[in-house]
């Protein structure tokens, strides 16, 4: 019996894939802040990033007007600040950031690494303007 035989209708369907290990990626030697990993699979409906904030570093106050974002802390600790006050985060903290919410993030003494997931933004479209 082949693997596909145990999954009726799976013939040409895409298959799940293991993309990496967040713990291993986050454990790499400290480097610059920013994205350690990005989801780049063709045809995806989601965007996801593994973000590192260095010790005592921060992400300035901002809002995402169009997309809800899910944030999962992988390593380190810090504070998510929002209109309702500061919220401590640590490994395992799962945070929903509703679209339009204003927030900032500050890493603790050991830095902060987290995954963000949100709906993929549509690509830029070049459109022809009609002349009056």
Write the layout of secondary structure elements.
Blueprint (H helix, E strand, L loop, with lengths): L21 H5 L7 E5 L7 E8 L4 E6 L5 E14 L2 E5 L4 E4 L4 E18 L13
Antiparallel strand pairs: 1-2, 2-7, 3-7, 4-5, 4-6, 4-7
**Could you tell me how far the N terminus lies from the C terminus, measured between alpha carbons in angstroms?**
66 Å
Provide the CATH topology. Answer: Jelly Rolls
Number of domain units: 1
Pattern of helices and strands:
HEEEEEEE
- Mind summarizing the main beta sheet? 7 strands, antiparallel
Mean pLDDT rating: 86
The CATH class is Mainly Beta
Proportion of residues in helical segments: under 10%
Helical element count? 1
Q: Based on DSSP secondary structure assignment, what is the total number of beta strands?
A: 7
Strand content: over 45%
**Second rung of CATH, namely the architecture:** Sandwich
Please compute the radius of gyration using only Cα atoms.
Answer: 19 Å
Find the structural class using helix and strand composition.
mainly beta
Give the CATH superfamily: Jelly Rolls
Oligomer: single chain
Shape: globular
Q: Which stretches are low in confidence, meaning pLDDT under 50 for 5 or more residues running?
A: none
């Amino acid at each position: 019996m082949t693997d596909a035989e145990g999954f009726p209708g799976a013939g040409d369907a895409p298959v799940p894939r293991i993309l990496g290990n967040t713990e291993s990626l986050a454990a790499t030697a400290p480097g610059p802040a920013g994205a350690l990993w990005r989801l780049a699979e063709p045809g995806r409906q989601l965007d996801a990033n593994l973000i590192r904030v260095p010790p005592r570093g921060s992400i300035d106050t901002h809002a995402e007007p169009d997309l809800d974002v899910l944030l999962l802390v992988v390593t380190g600790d810090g504070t998510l600040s929002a209109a309702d006050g500061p919220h401590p985060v640590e490994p395992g903290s799962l945070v929903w950031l509703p679209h339009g919410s204003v927030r900032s993030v500050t890493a603790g003494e050991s830095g902060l690494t987290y995954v963000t997931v949100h709906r993929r933004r549509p690509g830029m479209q070049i459109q022809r303007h009609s002349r009056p």
